[in-house]
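ok here's the first one, seq then C-alpha cells
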Amino acid sequence: MAVHLRLSRIGRHKRPFYRVVAIDSRKRRDGRCLEVVGTYDPLKESVNTTFKEDRVLEWLRHGAQPSVTVRTLLKRSGILKTFEDAKKTPAPAS
C-alpha cells in the first residue's frame, strides 16, 4: 500500500479549508484517510498551517510521499528540513 500525504478539502463553498492527511494513494481526494496530520487555511493573510510534527516525520520515515502542495507547506514550516537532516545523520548503534 502506497501512502501519500495530501490535502483533503473540508471548507464550504468559496471558503476553502484543508486537512493534511495520510491516505492510501488509490483513495479519492476526500475519501477515508489513515490519519489527519495537520491543517491548512489558505485564506488567512499569513498562511496558517499546523502539523503534528512527530506524526508527519513518522509517516515520512515509513515512505509516505507528500504531494507537491504538501511538500511546499512542509518546507515552509521547516519539517522537511528536519526530516532530511535526520536522514543524513547515521543512526546510533545499539
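and now the second one, same deal
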Amino acid sequence: MAAVGAVKGGGMEGVARVEALTHEGAGVAHHEGKAVFIDGALPGERVRFCYDGRKRHYDKAHVVEVLESAADRVEPPCPHFGVCGGCRLQHLAPAAQVRAKEQIVRDTFWHVGQVNPQVWAPALTGPTVGYRRKARLGVRVVPKKGGVLVGFRERNHSFIAPLENCLTLEPRIGTRLTVLRDLIATLSVAARVPQVEYGGGDGGAALIFRHLEPLSAADEEAIQSFGARLGLDVYGQAAGPESIRALGPTRPLFYTLPAFDIRLEFAAHDFVQVNGVVNQAMVSQALAWLEVGPASRVLDLFCGLGNFTLPLARRVREVTGIEGNAALVAQAARNAATNGLANAHFVAADLDAAGVAGVIGDSPPDAALLDPPRTGALGAVQALGALAVPRILYVSCNPATLARDAQVLVGQFGYRLARAGVMDMFPHTHHIESMALFERGTV
C-alpha cells in the first residue's frame, strides 16, 4: 500500500474503486451511490480518499492512500508535482496519458454531440519534457515564504507555487527560474511585477516583464544585463500589449515548418502552438487529411500568424486566412511576403456566422480549416455548413465545444465525421488538442 502526498485536513474518508478520469485529470469513482471526483487517483485503482467538498450531485476528494495501484502509475518526474497546478498527470505514464485523452474525446463526441468518427487516427506525440515554448509565469512577493515567488498557480488554489525549475518549459527558461526570481527581488518594483511572459523560437527567446509601476533606470539596466547574460531578449510591459517595449537589443523570434519550407516570425506575446515538434506533425496531418491540390481554394479560420495558411499556400491555388486580431493579421501578411507567397491573403473580421459569410460571399471554398479558441466555432461552422463547403477540418483545444460543433455539422447540415484523432500538445497536463475531418455526402 502506498501513501500519496500529505493528507489535506481531517475530513471524512472513504474507500472506492476508480473508474475513469475527468477532463481535469481527477479520478471518477462512486461511493454510497454518488459520484466522487478524487484528485490524484487513476482508473482501476482502489483508493482511500478524504472529502474536500460535497455538492448535491457529486463530491470532491483527494487520495490519502492507494490501496491497489494502476499498472500505469509512475513516479512523478517533477519535485513540484502535487503542489504546482501546471501538470496534473505526471503520475500517469505518458502513453497512458494519451490513451486517457483519446477516451475523453471519444466519450465527449458521443455524450455531447451524439457522433462517432468513422476512423480514429493514431495520436500525434512528441517530447514529454522541455517542450513548452510559451508560458506566463506568475510572480508574487510573499515574505512569509521567503520573498519573491515565481511559478504557476498552486493546484486548486490561486497562490503561486514557488518553483525551482520546470521540466515542461524549454530548458533555457525552465532551468533558470531561481535566477529569474533573484533578479526580480533586486527590482525597486518587485512587489508590482505580477507576471513574466516567456516566448521561445527556433533561434532566440524573450521575456516580457509586466510591471504595474514604472521601472527605474536601475531596474531597466538590471533586466537588460540579465537578458544579455542569459541570451534572452527582454521587454517591459506597463499596460496592454501596445505598451510592450524593448529594454535592450532584440532579434526577431521565429519558428520553421521544414516540411513546407516556411519560416514564421512572431512577437513574444503572440499566440503560437506551445509544442514545436507536435505542431509540425499537426500541420502535416491537417494538409494530408484535407487532400487539397494545385487547383483548390481554401479558407483558414482563426488563422493567427499563418501557421496553417502558409503551408496551405505551398499546395493550393489560393488560401484566405481570417483572424479577429488585426495585429496577427498584419504579421501573417508579413510572413506570407517573407516566404514569397502571393496566393495567401488575410482578412481581419469577426468569426461569427455573419463575419465568415461576408468574407466567403457567394463562392464557397473547396475546403476550410478551423483552429478556434476554447469557446469553439459555432457561428463559423453554421456559415460553412450553410454554404455546403465540401471538406472542413477542425483543430480543437476543447473536446466539449468540438463535440457541440460536430453535432451541428452532422445533424443540421448532413456532414459525416470522417476521421478524428488527438495530438499530445501538452504532455503531463489535462489539456487536450484534437483534430476532426468533416465531409459532405456519403462514402
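notes on #2: The chain has three domains: 2-73, 99-127+275-440, 134-252. The CA atoms of residues 130 and 168 lie 5 Å apart.
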